Amino acid sequence: MQALTIRENARTIEEISWQIAHAKKMVVVTGAGISTSSGIPDFRSKEGLYEMIKNKFPNERITGQQLFDKSYLNNEKIRKMFYVFMGELHSLTTAAVPTMTHRFFKRLSEQKKIMHYYTQNIDNLEAAVDLDAVQLHGTMNEVYCDTCGFTVQFTKVHAEIFKKGVPPQCNECRKREAIRQASGKRKHRIGDLQPNITLYNDVDDTTRGVYIQKCVKNDLRKKPDYLLVAGTSLKVYGVKNLIKQLAKSVHQNDGKVVLVNLSGVGKEWNSVFDYQILAHVDEWAELVEEHIGLNKTQKLLMGIAKKTSASVNESISKGRVKRRRKDRDQDRENVGSNNDCKKKTLKRSKAEVLEVVEALQ
Ligand SMILES: [Zn+2]
């Protein structure tokens, strides 16, 4: 495994960009690092959710991992903290915006390069760019009933109830119970709604688990030619296995396996990754786009827009200088000439835009 940085290994990083450009059966696995610039504060930062939870529950001691651990939810106080956390997290994720990296993978997907895009993230930001994702740990976009399994969209109303430290009740169970009671049957429990995410020590033998296995099986059968792992430090057991399995298949097909993450990974990964790029994923994605021109049209059009606006401003500013020097009659003339100049610049810019669009078609 070769460790690279953007500044010191520019040539190799460009080579990797071209490998991506030529890949046809790519698999992508992403983690928290791709969402750090989305507006969701790092859980551990001063503005993060752990700090907020500590302030709300000053007498409780709990680690971040324990808060996401199913075995701790039997404790009433921890369960209350978990629900408050989930309500607040939902508000943050719905206000967040997709990052440069989400858009980059969307463009690769539009070019039909990606067989499957797997993510450990539960923020559902892929949906905002219409990128199909296999959500390894579920999503904050749904809640499910812990009794009847009914699944529904996680709404603001649910989030406000969670913030009070209690779970919302399941409407489906309520309806069923009303019918049972009307016919004189004995009472059944009304289920609680839970965020549709996978917790530590939660046995994932659900529909989601079966679906993930099916996707991986399909990818292996189709012989993937590239594996890109981005924004994860590979701490979760299930994800480690998934990556090792896919990497083996990619190498058998003479493909490359690349990790992009701010911090490096240990020796365990030496034979798994060909390259580890130590960089912020957004910065790297932007560089790849520059190399292989995924967003060429957008950049060219932006360049022309900037040029046009600078040119118009320059003309107006020149007119202002003249105005101070000349008499009133001359001043009127200058204003006229500025307007003409403005018109000419706009005309030229329109022609240039058409030229670029034509050249790219
Ligand atoms: Zn239910």
TrEMBL record:
Does the keyword field hold Transcription regulation? Answer: no
Q: Name one GO molecular function term.
A: NAD+ binding
Q: Per its UniProt record, what InterPro entries does this chain match? A: DHS-like_NAD/FAD-binding_dom, NAD-dep_sirtuin_deacylases, Sirtuin, Sirtuin_cat_small_dom_sf, Ssirtuin_cat_dom
The record's region (Disordered) falls at 313-342
- Which residues catalyse the reaction? H137 (proton acceptor)
Question: Coiled-coil annotation: which residues?
Answer: none
Q: Record-annotated residues binding Zn(2+)? A: C145, C148, C170, C173
Report one GO cellular component: nucleus
Keywords recorded for this protein, A-Z: Metal-binding, NAD, Transferase, Zinc
Q: Which residues form the Deacetylase sirtuin-type domain?
A: 6-295
Q: Which residue positions does the secretion signal occupy? A: none
The record's similarity note reads: Belongs to the sirtuin family. Class I subfamily.
Protein name as catalogued:
5296_t:CDS:1
Q: Which organism is it from?
A: Ambispora leptoticha
